[in-house]
Each structure stands twice: as structure tokens, then as C-alpha cells.
């Protein structure tokens, strides 16, 4: 057998006698690592060919306390020990029995061999009473060389095999959990039955449809479960006949439109198909119930979303940047020009406006996209380290420089370096940066030679660099070097129509991450987002939506959400017409239920109010086409609304 190089052959010897440790060193001397299967088989006969032992790593402890510390350290560093030989009788403090008890408490997988030179018959009884026999052997001194070699090799191989099996079981469990999460999130009711009609699996939708947990359904016989399910259908007799045909045997695919009358009336498409094992034998069937009443609406929404997304990506979007306002279109135009050249770019904007996203978008869409993108926050690096951070240092350049270090500029060779908050860069470093931009060469701290670099520089700041130049805080020559192509990023309140788009983007992202079925914003919540000034810009909006998703208890993000409470007192107070105000006056806890038509009407009224009766913008904010909004405005007689 060829010993795996990544297997664990770490062995701990715990004994207060120095001679025992020396014996183990001699008995487990490393041999060849490429033994054949026949050679290994010979190793388990009366004699072991030491040349075919793996490379054991021996650790030594002279007391139980020291052994316990070594085991704990091995666990903390994720470098576990496979086998431990522990002498039972050691000096007072912590004998082998107590050491084994404590080691078992922190590492239940380690293979333990208890050693003793005594023949006290009660020892075996003591060990059994301690319930330590799990993964534990018991040998007496003196022991033969071949005995130790055989035991150590066998236990180490056993530890590694069990570790691999445990990892595979863990990965399988994770895969099963992910699969269940996916099936729960589909919106369909899905169940799997065995060949005799007994339930094997049911997702959350199936449980909710038939008002029973999967565990409860598994306790029922196929006949009992069939009778329970049948009563939910509008035509229970017809459903029962179909079930009988499918059960004898379930070898064909089948689909039908059926109707349930409880817990609410729905038209469903029911589909069932056989499930096969790896030998293609039928082992059961899977059943899916899909709500037909939602299909057309979902299909239309998907087409519209796909159209809008494609349009946005083709015309406006770069990487993860979201926005379609006029101010953002101007930013996209500048970005496109920057992409087509290698000019140094200066991105200017308040904190939270997305300056790094713009820099990354320029990089990934440029000819340098295959190279690295290295971001450096100039304000976060101490003054004493920033030069070393940017340009690297040689070994011994200063106290603590024990090895050579490659700086950010060298790391970004062939790609882009992003110097964020460049206005906070110290004057000495500014001078060296100017030289790098002019000469395209760097010199490590403590070095004497120049190193050529091929790097594009993108800088960013939230400060007025021209004012900093006038105040003598920033070099004028460096300013003109980096400001050759400025890209100003607007504040969020200057791109008002992007708030809804960004809000829905973050809502979808964090709802999926939190596994919450939040479909959108209530009219009141959207009004709050649209009327707030957002001094923290896009970052503040994102953080607000993230908190709101975690705190929301309904399937629509409501205006009363605690995360939105801070928006009420600082909103600009955009006025609503009486119809829109009446809608917002209903709190999320109200017992009054509005019809879907009334909610749709109020949403249209609100969208027209917010967009100053701009039908195009209202349609975009609602996520529907102009044709659709015209049709709905006509339906509700809102075309002439002012």
C-alpha cells in the first residue's frame, strides 16, 4: 500500500520514564513511504519490515498534565494527534486514568493505548467503570517491538480512514441540508414516496398544503396518509382513483390540473414521476404540486425583469453598480472612456457612494482584467508602515523586517492598484508616489535597485483635493498627475430615481441570504426610502435594508419596520394626495384587508405622485412596462390625475 502523504501519523507518548520514550523512537523509526500492498501485508505477520513503516511524527509528554496541554494545542492549531500511548501510573497530580478522562473530553476521536507494568486485576475494572473503552486499547509492559509497530500502524490507519469517512458524512449532510433548503424555497409542494406509498420526504410547501409536518406524515400508513390528503381536493373521489393507478406500480410520468378547496381554493398542476436507483430500478415516486394561479403572473414578471435587467446591463451597468439616473449615465460614459485607455483616474465622491465599485468596474472591463486588482486604503495604514506597504522592504531594512516583503505596487504588476483616500497620504510618501507615476519604477525600503512595474493607478478621495493643495496639505504636482481624468460620483440624493432600484436590489440580495420570503416594499416603506436624504449614501441604504430584512416579520417590508424608524424624522416630507395618504395610514398591524385591486390602484397613485406624473419613471419604479402602466391607469381612470 502506498501511504498517503496527507494522512496523519502523529503519535504522542506519555510516560514518566525517559527509557520508554527512547524505546518508541527506536521502534517507530521512519521507513520507506512507497510500500507495496504485499509488503504491508507482510508487516502484520510475526515480524514487521521496518523499511515499510510510514513516517511517524512522535511527540513526548512526561506527565498527564503535559499530555493534556499538548492535545489541546493540537486541536486549537487543527493539527490533531492520531494515536496516544499513555502510562497508567505516573507521579501524583494527574495519572494516566485522569489524563485519559480529560483527553477524551476534548478529543473523542484520538486512538488511545493504555500502558502499565503492573498486573493489578482491578485496573481493567476501573477502566470499564470509567466508560473509557471507546477507541481504547490496554497493553502491558514490557512490549515487543513488532507489537508496538503493528498497533501504531493499524490505529493510525484506522484514525485516518474514520476521519475521511466522517468528513464525507459531514459533506453529505451539508449537501442534504442545501438540497432541502432549495426544495423549500421553490414555492412548490414537493414530496417523495417509496414503492409502497410511504412518505420519505416532504418539503415545507407540502407540509403547509396538507397541514401536517413531514414527521407526522411519516408515522402514518400509506392508506391513512392517502385519506388525509384526499379530503383537501375538490373531487376527492377522482383524486383517490388517480392515486390507486399511480401506486400500481408508479412507473410512468403523469400530469394533471386539479383543484383544492382548503386551506384556500387553488388551481394546481400536479406532476408525478418515478424515481430510479443507480441500477435504474424504480424505488418510488416524486410528486410536485404547483399553484397554477401564479404561473402566468410569474412568467410575465420574469420576462419583464429579464428585459429590464438586460437593458440595464447593456446600457448602463458595470459589474455591481446599480443605477439608471441621468447623473449615473454620465458616470458610465466617463467610465467607458477610462476603460479604453490606460490613463490614471481620480474618483471623487462622498463616503458610501461606491468609489471602489467604480474602480473595480473599470479594471474588470479593461484589457488589464486578467491581472490583479489591489486595493489600498491609505487612511487605514499607519504612517510608519505605509511606505513598506506600498513599495515593500528588504530584509533588515528596519527593526522587525526579518524577511523580504513584496509591496502592493509589485503585487499589482500587470493589473490595477486602487489608492483609496489618497488625500490622507503623508507628504513623504506623496513624493515617492509622484516618482513612481513618472518613472514607472519603485524601490523597496532598504533596497538600492529600481524595479520596473506595469501598473495602472486609480485613486479615490472623499475630500476636495484642490482645497487640500491650496492649504499645502497635498502636493500640487501629484494632484495634476492623478487628476488627469476625474470621475465625480454623485451623492445618492442627487440620483433620486435610483433609490427604488437600489432598494429592490439590496432587498432581493439580503432576503435570499437570510432565507426570508420578502417580496418587496410596502408603499409606505418605499415612500420613506424615497423621501430620506441618505447622508451615508448607498452604503447607508444597503445597511438599512440589511437590518430591515432581518427584523421584518411579514412577506413585504413595512414602513413600521424598526430599521426604518430613523428615516421618519429626517425625511423631506414629500406630500401625497389624499388617496395615497389613505393607503399609508393603514399600519401593518391593521385588521382591515384591502383588495388586490385597491392596493394596485394606490401603488399607481403613489408612483405618479413621487415621479411628478412622469409615466415613464412611474413604470420604471414599479417594474412594469409603459404599455402595462397605461393599461392599468386607464382601468382605474387615473390617466388625467394631477
Report on this structure:
It contains 26 helices and 19 strands. It is of the alpha/beta class. The protein starts with 9 loop residues before the first strand and ends in a 7-residue tail after the last helix. Mean pLDDT is 81; it is low at 31-48, 312-317 and 573-591.
Short description:
The chain has 26 helices and 19 strands. It is α/β, with parallel strands linked by helices and 642 residues long.
Q: Cα distance, first to last residue?
A: 85 Å
The major sheet is characterized as:
5 strands, parallel
* CATH topology (fold) name of the largest domain: Rossmann fold
**Total individual domains:** 4
Question: In DSSP terms, counting alpha (H) and pi (I) runs of 4 or more, how many helices?
Answer: 26
- Structural class call reads alpha/beta
What is the topology, as strand order, of the major beta sheet? 2-1-3-4-5
Q: What is the typical, i.e. mean, pLDDT?
A: 81
CATH homologous superfamily assignment of the largest domain? P-loop containing nucleotide triphosphate hydrolases
Which stretches are poorly predicted, pLDDT < 50 over at least 5 residues?
31-48, 312-317, 573-591
CATH class of the largest domain: Alpha Beta
What is the number of E strands? 19
What is the CATH architecture assignment of the largest domain?
Answer: 3-Layer(aba) Sandwich
Radius of gyration over all CA atoms, rounded: 35 Å
Amino acid at each position: 500500500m502506498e501511504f498517503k502523504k496527507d494522512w496523519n501519523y502523529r503519535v504522542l507518548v506519555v510516560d514518566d520514564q525517559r527509557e520508554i520514550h527512547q524505546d518508541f523512537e527506536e521502534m517507530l523509526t521512519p521507513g520507506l513511504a512507497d510500500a507495496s500492498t504485499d509488503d504491508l501485508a507482510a508487516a502484520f505477520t510475526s515480524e514487521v519490515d521496518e523499511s515499510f513503516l510510514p513516517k511517524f511524527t512522535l511527540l513526548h509528554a512526561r506527565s498527564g498534565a503535559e499530555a493534556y496541554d499538548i492535545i489541546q494545542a493540537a486541536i486549537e492549531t487543527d493539527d490533531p494527534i492520531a494515536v496516544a500511548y499513555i502510562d497508567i501510573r505516573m507521579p501524583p497530580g494527574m495519572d494516566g486514568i485522569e489524563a485519559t478522562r480529560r483527553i477524551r473530553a476534548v478529543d473523542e476521536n484520538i486512538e488511545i493505548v493504555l500502558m502499565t507494568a503492573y498486573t493489578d486485576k482491578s485496573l481493567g475494572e476501573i477502566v470499564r467503570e470509567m466508560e473509557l473503552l471507546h477507541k481504547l486499547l490496554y497493553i502491558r509492559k514490557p512490549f515487543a517491538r513488532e507489537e508496538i509497530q503493528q498497533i501504531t500502524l493499524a490505529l493510525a490507519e484506522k484514525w485516518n480512514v474514520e476521519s475521511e469517512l466522517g468528513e464525507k458524512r459531514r459533506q453529505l449532510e451539508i449537501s442534504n441540508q442545501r438540497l432541502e433548503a432549495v426544495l423549500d424555497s421553490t414555492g412548490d409542494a414537493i414530496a417523495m414516496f417509496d414503492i409502497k406509498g410511504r412518505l420519505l420526504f416532504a418539503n415545507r410547501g407540502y407540509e403547509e398544503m396538507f397541514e401536517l409536518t413531514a414527521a407526522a406524515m411519516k408515522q402514518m400508513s400509506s392508506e391513512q396518509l392517502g385519506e388525509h390528503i384526499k379530503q383537501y381536493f375538490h373531487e376527492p373521489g377522482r383524486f383517490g382513483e388517480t392515486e390507486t393507478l399511480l401506486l400500481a406500480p408508479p412507473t410512468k410520468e403523469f400530469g394533471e390540473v386539479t383543484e383544492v378547496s382548503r386551506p384556500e381554493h387553488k388551481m394546481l398542476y400536479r406532476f408525478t414521476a418515478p424515481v430510479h436507483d443507480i441500477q435504474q430500478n424504480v424505488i418510488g415516486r416524486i410528486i410536485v404540486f404547483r399553484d397554477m394561479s401564479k404561473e402566468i403572473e410569474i412568467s410575465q414578471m420574469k420576462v419583464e425583469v429579464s428585459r429590464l435587467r438586460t437593458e440595464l446591463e447593456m446600457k448602463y451597468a458595470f459589474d455591481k453598480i446599480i443605477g439608471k439616473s441621468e447623473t449615473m449615465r454620465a458616470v458610465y460614459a466617463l467610465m467607458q472612456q477610462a476603460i479604453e485607455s490606460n490613463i490614471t483616474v481620480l474618483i471623487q465622491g462622498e463616503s458610501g457612494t461606491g468609489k471602489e465599485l467604480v474602480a473595480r468596474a473599470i479594471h474588470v472591463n479593461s484589457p488589464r482584467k486578467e491581472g490583479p486588482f489591489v486595493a489600498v486604503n491609505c487612511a487605514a495604514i499607519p504612517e510608519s508602515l505605509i511606505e513598506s506597504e506600498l513599495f515593500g522592504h528588504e530584509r533588515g531594512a528596519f527593526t522587525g523586517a526579518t524577511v523580504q516583503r513584496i509591496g502592493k505596487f509589485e503585487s499589482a504588476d500587470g493589473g490595477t492598484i486602487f489608492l483609496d483616500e489618497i488625500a490622507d497620504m503623508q507628504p513623504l510618501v506623496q513624493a515617492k508616489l509622484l516618482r513612481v507615476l513618472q518613472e514607472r519604477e519603485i524601490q523597496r525600503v532598504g533596497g538600492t535597485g529600481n524595479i520596473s512595474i506595469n501598473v495602472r493607478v486609480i485613486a479615490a478621495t472623499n475630500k476636495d483635493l484642490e482645497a487640500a493643495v491650496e492649504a499645502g496639505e497635498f502636493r500640487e504636482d501629484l494632484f495634476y498627475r492623478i487628476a488627469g481624468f476625474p470621475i465625480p460620483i454623485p451623492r445618492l440624493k442627487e440620483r433620486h430615481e435610483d433609490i427604488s432600484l437600489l432598494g429592490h436590489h439590496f432587498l432581493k440580495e439580503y432576503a435570499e441570504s437570510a432565507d426570508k420570503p420578502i417580496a418587496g416594499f410596502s408603499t409606505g416603506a418605499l415612500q420613506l426610502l424615497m423621501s430620506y436624504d441618505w447622508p451615508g449614501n448607498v452604503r447607508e441604504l444597503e445597511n438599512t435594508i440589511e437590518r430591515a430584512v432581518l427584523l421584518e416579520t411579514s412577506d413585504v417590508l413595512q414602513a413600521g419596520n424598526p430599521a426604518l424608524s430613523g428615516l421618519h424624522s429626517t425625511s423631506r416630507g414629500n406630500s401625497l394626495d389624499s388617496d395615497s395618504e389613505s393607503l399609508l395610514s393603514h399600519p401593518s398591524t391593521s385588521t382591515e384587508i384591502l383588495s388586490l385591486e385597491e392596493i394596485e390602484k394606490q401603488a399607481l397613485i403613489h408612483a405618479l405622485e413621487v415621479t411628478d406624473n412622469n409615466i415613464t419613471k412611474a413604470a420604471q419604479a414599479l417594474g412594469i412596462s409603459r404599455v402595462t402602466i397605461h393599461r392599468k391607469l386607464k382601468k382605474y381612470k387615473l390617466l388625467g390625475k394631477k
